[in-house]
Write a structure and sequence with these properties.
A four-stranded antiparallel beta sheet has the order 5-7-11-9, with no helix packed on it. Strands 1-2 form a two-stranded antiparallel sheet. A two-stranded antiparallel ribbon has the order 3-4. The longest helix has 13 residues. By secondary structure, it is mostly beta strands. It is 6% helix and 40% strand. A hairpin with a 5-residue loop joins strand 3 and strand 4. The protein folds into three domains: 55 residues, no CATH class; 79 residues, Immunoglobulin-like, CATH 2.60.40; 57 residues, no CATH class.
């Protein structure tokens, strides 16, 4: 290969064996790195044998911006166990139809539902619906989960008439975002007292 810039890579067999008068077609695979310039390149494939024979085949390679992809919304906050809906919009900037495969990474253990492929005509755009179930905080995606635990320490307190009894309510935020909690205290329901009395009678 000659004229190949560092931003392009080529896969080409180093040698090809041919019988007298035979013809073979060899595939040349070119790939553009993410920082490749969007421009036209003149390349040359040189072929030589051990007897001094030589031939060169020229070609032109044009690096284009082939597609656009964006995800919306930018971020979401959902409760653990709830689903977050996203939309991936893909625009085909080429002059030919293309089929795109869509995959997501960084999800951890969070289940995801989305179509495997999207086919677009030349110059058209389409959307892919994505649904993520927030089951784990181990994710690098732009959604967060709310989850909290609460416990009284100690679990019971004894106080006489006119005296105060003290309990400490401990909250632990085990979600993936900072949060603010509203705290209300209610009386114990009647069924709790009946259940406790039944257990004491059964001892």
């Amino acid at each position: 290969m000659a004229g190949l810039p560092s931003s392009l890579t080529a896969a080409l067999p180093e040698t090809v064996s041919l019988a007298a008068g035979a013809t073979v077609t060899v595939g040349l695979e070119l790939a553009a790195l993410p920082d490749a310039d969007l421009t036209e390149w003149e390349i040359l494939v040189n072929v030589a044998n051990t007897q001094g024979g030589h031939e060169a085949a020229p070609a032109t390679v044009t690096v284009v911006d082939a597609l656009r992809a964006r995800v919306g919304p930018d971020s979401q906050i959902v409760d653990t166990g709830a689903q977050a809906a996203y939309t991936v919009v893909i625009t085909n900037l080429e002059a030919v139809a293309r089929t795109y495969s869509v995959t997501l990474t960084g999800l951890g253990a969070n289940p995801v539902s989305l179509p495997a492929t999207l086919t677009l005509a030349a110059g058209s755009a389409g959307s892919v619906p994505v649904t993520i179930t927030a089951m784990s905080n181990e994710s690098s995606l732009v959604f967060a989960a709310r989850e909290v635990t609460a416990a009284f320490i100690p679990t019971t307190a004894t106080a006489g008439l006119g005296n105060d009894g003290y309990l400490t309510l401990t909250l632990e935020n085990i979600g993936s975002i900072g949060d603010t909690y509203d705290i209300t205290l209610t009386g114990r329901p009647d069924w709790w007292d009946r259940l406790r009395a039944q257990r004491l009678r059964n001892r």
